[in-house]
């Protein structure tokens, strides 16, 4: 009988043989760190354990010993730390790491030890082969916390404690500061909590303390906005921080910065005065604190109105533009705007605001009304940009329109998570019944509240709104013919004399006179031809025609800065031998111009501001030259220099447009540092208009010993760069500074890049005004060394200039092809025999004409017979004819095309297919840009 022990030991008297007559119990061997599990007749130790040899057994036997490892326990004594659960293991366990998660407030864990005296370290793991129950003891070391002091211009003693532990009781030091008395330390930066004198036992965490001081026996002058404070002892001026002896007589004078401001209060050691000067005695203790406030007593100009598209600006998708329109709310001299505290700029028209960053950002837009004799009237509007974009689309039948409950256009896009609100305005005249109307959003039926408002909240995907379940009303339009002419539906002269149309459809009817006759009016008295109206009932139309008598037209120019207006009672349609009188109205920014006026290229004289033309026998073209914008010469204050943003040149002696941008730089005298401008702004350098520059002067403070860095900004042509609410030349170490780069419209094609010490910076915000001026903001964070800022990629725009010839004459240009922004191209128009030049496409009638290139352009002129009547609004300059008459837009196209109509703010008003020939469209009164197909845009006025 063989007994393999697998590492165990049998008793000494173990039997190893037997006979058929033998019966006995198998031995019970032993093995350290294991428990015997029985004998098995196979090496796999499977089956039933065998405990004995029974009588009658035969054959040689081999039994294998089975062993189970003894389970041991590790217990942990955490010595004040959080509890640690005991662990179990056996001698065969693989090496494992001891737990290190126990915590103790104010202490750091230093490892496990074998003994309670913490003299024998155990290590970080239990290795394979270890056995036995045992206890491990945690060792702790005290955590040291940092103490930081903000002495606010004071100095701590050299032995001021800088660290502490939970077991320490730390007495805080007493700092020193010239001319001040130390009050105590505060944990609150605003000094609103209790004074701290010590860090008591049991305190944990880093601590920062802020020093509170009271004035010593010195004079402290707070520099006010919109004025100055002067303190004198006899004839000697006392500066802020100077020490003055007790009972010394001081004269304090508070002077407004200009006549617009009055002293509101002068405060001397908490005593308020309303007049200046004041004479006071220097106290023996506590020093003297002086401040003043100046108020503008003038009445405020009426605050302007701000409207935005979209109206709700709480959930604007990042990257989407918001169109901002401002409107005077009363009389004022000028309307300005400011974005996020930037220098106010003259408002010339709607502008757009957008962001580049995807992070949530709120932009503050201010509208400022400025009026002589009044203080500014200000309105502020916040625009919040957020990530994601969700759109809403309305599929609505004619007669139903969606409106914004808050006014204006329906919001068509919001940031993800935003809401759509709209009302449906139903004109019941369009529909036979509304009983079965159904409104759905993405296929789900929606219902309004009691006010008729539909709300779709927390939208995360695009929305399509449909209206169904209704049928429309129709009307019969009947045309009755009369002698000497005919009437027909416009663009469809061969159609029947009656037509059935839907309620609200536009209908256009044209009256066409026979030879030697002209259209006089419709039988109901209306004179518009073509006549366009909305079908609201059954209508019958008939026209009157009368004998024709020829006349001539006076063509007036359309110019920026001046309006040419007929004198009351005079029409631009003049009969043979008639006369025409007119005058010029110069806009405010052009009122220094010296106009020269021509009639068919002959100079006219003016009599009491009126120009007259007599005995007219041909068409007359009025031209006006010499209209230029006013300019100013900026007068700079002491310690101020300025650079013209357009040219990069010093502005000294230059005459600039009033809204030309310049970069103001305040250079502090020796021993001083720039504080702010007299209007309270702290931008240095600062980008302002030439008109505003003369009103600004810098304020300075004594230089301190605080560690600073300098941000060096480049001088540029085509763009200006400045700091936002900071002095770029003196930035405290560790602080951040925001830079503002303003790129002129003439450089809008530039791929601008900004570098700080050679590293390219990303713009955090992009703003674009109506003038196409683009403003980019950059943030330089945590400055620790001087920074050189560089700007690359600025390039003057280039445009394509081409010519297009028209019937009736030839036009020539001094230069075509690629030209730079601002290039002056001389245009000349030569009419064919019997014709006259009428005007250029932009409305100017000068010939030759010095045209300034500011965009891609196709230059063309229009011609007409010199002795045939032409209409002021009906001059055709291409195969496509676009004009306004009778309150409608009229289009004649040689082919099927697409019509696009925009407001002057750039909003698409209408897009529709148009047929070959004539068509007309009813539009509200206003000015529009109209384009047919890929042709040039044309500006029209609907009156």
| Number of separate strands | 90
Overall number of domains? 9
Shape: flat
* Strands in their spatial order, largest beta sheet: 25-27-30-73-74-70-68
What does the largest sheet look like?
A: 7 strands, antiparallel
User: What structural class do helix, strand and pairing data support?
Assistant: mainly beta
Summed over residues and divided by their number, the pLDDT gives a mean of 86
Rg (C-alpha, Å): 45 Å
Could you name the ranges where pLDDT drops below 50 across 5 or more consecutive residues? 869-878
C-alpha end-to-end distance: 124 Å
Q: What's the number of helices? A: 1
Roughly how much helix do the residues carry, as a percent range?
under 10%
| Residue share in β-strands | over 45%
Protein name: Bacterial repeat domain-containing protein
Subcellular location: Cell envelope
Main location: other
Domain Bacterial repeat: 219-295, 482-548, 799-865
